[in-house]
Amino acid sequence: MSSMSASEIARLQVCLRRLLGSPELTVNPPPRAGLSVEVAVKGEVIGTIHRDEDEGEVSYALHMTILEEDLPAETAAARSRR
Question: Which InterPro entries did the record assign (predicted)?
């Protein structure tokens, strides 16, 4: 995993806000070297971004975790479709 510059973090924040339609999304630098860059919405961390560089090409991977307890309750209609 490669570390990210402040410029990359700022550009990722602009890109993710546009793509996900959330102006409250923030991309936060790690508090110390070696830790992941975190993605948060309204202060709640929803995932991490990892930078990969291979043969001179740079890509970023967003890993987002959604806990089942955060999902809305399942409706009877959804249960019957299973």
Answer: DUF3126 (IPR021473)
pLDDT in tens, 48-74: 999 999 999 999 999 998 989 989 998
pTM to 2 decimal places? 0.80
Half-sphere exposure of 9 (CA within 13 A, CB side): 16
Q: Count CB-CB contacts under 10 A for residue 6.
A: 8
Type of residue found at 38: E
Instruction: Using the predicted structure, report yes or no on whether residue 78 has a pLDDT greater than 90.
Output: no
Strand order in 25-28's β-sheet?
25-28, 37-41, 44-54, 57-64
* Side-chain-facing half-sphere of 33: CA atoms under 13 Å: 3
How is the chain split into domains, by residue range?
6-80
